[in-house]
Design goal:
The chain has helices at 103-116, 138-147, 161-170, 215-228, and strands at 2-7, 20-25, 59-60, 73-74, 80-81, 91-96, 125-130, 154-157, 175-182, 185-192, 195-199, 205-210. The protein is α+β, with helices and mostly antiparallel strands.
């Protein structure tokens, strides 16, 4: 669980634009520690990173400028899940620890409120890529579906360690594992960027939200996209 904020370099050339994401991880209980992950990737030439108010998206992009990297993982039923599967429909792409019991469930409930605010025919799909490969057992995913009251529009995305790392890297998600062994049992404490991307019906990244964010802000972005696409 973590909160990250991007910073935008002041260079004049968009071709040289890079993101700098700092991951600030909250740890067990009321005690806090900091994990800083720095991931850089060149922006696409036509992409525009737009500064926005603190209570809105951390970043937005114009239509048809930033294709969302696709992937092929598996959902909670073992079926293939990818962004391409939802082409023609907006997607909220987020990154969740299935074993998390503090920030991740809160974010999940916020996204479910977003989904519930739209008519059935216009609801976005929610794809949650796991950031904890030790918690990816189907039993854990189904427990979360039940306890977090997730709907059929929520799709977990799990896979091999290499497959998951590739997706994290593509979306600049910092993930840190701090294992601790007690009485022969190893517990993996995961810290990660708490982020949600809005991907439009054409498969382009349009907005990035960093936790904490509100259902109202995310819903506003989705409605603006729906209106723009007519």
């Amino acid at each position: 669980m973590s909160v990250q904020q991007p910073s935008v370099p002041a260079g004049s050339s968009l071709r040289r634009l890079r993101w700098l994401f700092w991951g600030i991880a909250l740890v067990v209980g009321v005690a806090a520690g900091i994990v800083i992950g720095v991931l850089r990737a060149p922006a696409k030439p036509a992409a525009v990173l737009t500064p926005v108010p603190p209570d809105g998206a951390a970043a937005t992009w114009a239509a048809a400028t930033r294709p969302a990297p696709d992937f092929r993982l598996a959902d909670q039923a073992g079926a293939p899940v990818s962004l391409g599967r939802f082409r023609g429909r907006p997607v909220i792409l987020t990154f969740i620890d299935p074993l998390c019991r503090n920030l991740c469930p809160i974010e999940a409930k916020i996204l479910e409120r977003v989904e519930a605010g739209f008519p059935a025919a216009r609801r976005p799909a929610i794809v949650a890529v796991s950031v904890n490969r030790w918690g990816d057992a189907r039993a854990n995913l189904l427990v979360d579906m039940r306890k977090w009251k997730l709907t059929q529009d929520w799709h977990w995305a799990v896979g091999t360690p290499a497959g998951l790392r590739a997706v994290w890297h593509a979306y600049r998600i910092a993930v840190s594992d701090s294992p601790k062994t007690v009485a022969g049992i190893t517990v993996h404490q995961i810290s990660h960027t708490e982020a949600a991307y809005i991907v439009d019906a054409r498969g382009d990244e349009r907005a990035l939200y960093l936790y904490p964010f509100t259902a109202t802000d995310v819903s506003r972005t989705l409605r603006q996209l729906a209106g723009a696409q007519g």
